[in-house]
Amino acid sequence: MIIGIDANEANVKNRVGTGQYAFQVLKHLHRLDKKNKYIVYLKKPPLPDLPLSHKNWQYHIFGPQKLWTRLALPLHLYTAKPKPNILYTSGHYTPPFCPCPVTPTIHDLGYLKYPHQFTKKDYHQLKSWTAQSIKKAGHIFTVSNFSKKEIQKIYHVPADKITVAPNGVGDPPKNLPSSTIHSPYFLYLGTLKPNKNIPFLIKSFAQFITTHPNYKLVIAGKKGWLFDQIFALVKTLKLEKQVIFTGFVNDSKKWSLYKNATALVIPSLYEGFGRPAIEAMKVDCPVIASHIPPLKEVVGKAGLFIDPKNQKTLVSAMNQILQPPVRKKLIQLGHTQTKKYTWTFTVKTIIATLETQ
């Protein structure tokens, strides 16, 4: 079988969210599947850490880059040889016309629930192009049972047409560096954007440090969109010395931040999955998370849950997680929970599903 892949989301230097998912899927497909042939389509040459070419793994690089998925990719698929039997993409978008079946990965539908949290341009593109991808898809991947139910409900897609291929978690590097933050701290890790509910976290933290003034809040992640309120709030509350913004963090620093944190806090209003939760649990970092379906699914019993609109519940959880018996129990449960999420399982699920299409 010849499997085509739109791998552009994996071919970026600073990978977050769906970019990390795309990269891990690509890497594990290359390692695990020795039977099928892969043609990997890119608009730029592959970065050095992408899998190396071999007989069953070839890169096709072409342009023009503008509207690449909408025009360049479908035209290439119609004219190039050999043609794939199926086109897989780790993101929402697939070509509007294609000579073979397409299989997108719909990570979440948050833009439909919270359209005001996106710029008008991004919202209309997400809404229009995702709907088109779902309509034309021979099969659909998603990352959680929650997102599967959302796709079924909103787009009226039969359950047997959607396969859950969740995020995984790999092994952290050995000999992680010591923390450069010389105070106990709570950690947020992710892109700075509205659905992450970061102002709520900052306000709750401001309450917490009235009784624990030695604590810091580390907000790690690159700027996404509509993030000005976050920085303005820190200044308004005069928390410049207590709140640390790191910007984008690489893998080594990410794991070190998890390992040395008092807890990871995920106060999101909406998620499709919530991969930082399983990453944190992998290195004995307890998790405080919003009581929303995808996080309940991913974290299971291995975390403390809060109401993402009630600051008292987060302050209470922050206090509770300082207690040694609570920490010990959550760390043990976290070890069990992370075993459910491996990239090997994810990619074997993808391969098996593509082979049946």
Question: What does this protein look like?
Answer:
The chain has 357 residues and is α/β, with parallel strands linked by helices. It folds into two domains: 2-168 and 342-355, 3-Layer(aba) Sandwich (Rossmann fold); 185-338, Glycogen Phosphorylase B (Rossmann fold), CATH 3.40.50.2000. Strand 8, helix 6 and strand 9 (216-220) form a beta-alpha-beta unit. It is 40% helix and 15% strand. The chain has 13 helices and 13 strands. Strands 10-9-8-11-12-13 form a six-stranded parallel sheet, sandwiched between helices. It has a five-stranded parallel sheet with strand order 3-2-1-4-5, with no helix packed on it. A two-stranded parallel sheet has the order 6-7. 42% of the residues are buried. It has helices spanning 18-32, 68-79, 110-113, 120-136, 145-155, 198-208, 228-236, 251-260, 275-282, 293-299, 311-320, 324-338, 343-355, and strands at 2-6, 37-42, 57-61, 86-89, 102-103, 140-142, 162-164, 185-189, 216-220, 243-247, 263-266, 287-290, 303-306.
